[in-house]
Write a structure and sequence with these properties.
The chain is mostly helical and 101 residues long. It contains 3 helices and 4 strands; from the N terminus they run ββββααα. Helix content is 38%, strand content 8%.
């Protein structure tokens, strides 16, 4: 059993604050309810741009993809084996279409 970092209440399933890392009971789980110092630091360092205000802990910092779109992404991952299988499938499909026409 963990104890709430704010009030000391015993909690079987404590909430972990994403800003300060403390363990809290259901009543003090929100950063505003336990006077979170980590939230204050986050608000100061987030910058003035609204795009930086959104907190996304599970999203890695991604660089913008080049403007080539989905086709370049797929072609970049294409191996020789996949290219040969795709070519073979297209040839079989063409042969089947010729036989029906």
């Amino acid at each position: 059993m963990a104890r709430c970092s704010y009030c000391g209440a015993s909690e079987s399933l404590p909430f972990t604050c994403k800003f300060c890392g403390g363990k809290f009971c259901a009543e003090h789980r929100l950063p505003e309810n336990h006077d979170c110092q980590g939230l204050a630091v986050y608000k100061e360092t987030r910058g003035k741009e609204p795009e930086k205000w959104i907190y996304e802990p599970f999203r890695a910092e991604e660089q913008e993809a080049p403007r080539g779109g989905r086709v370049q992404e797929v072609l970049g991952r294409l191996t020789l084996r996949h290219a040969l299988y795709t070519l073979l499938a297209l040839l079989i499909l063409l042969m089947l279409l010729r036989s029906f026409l």
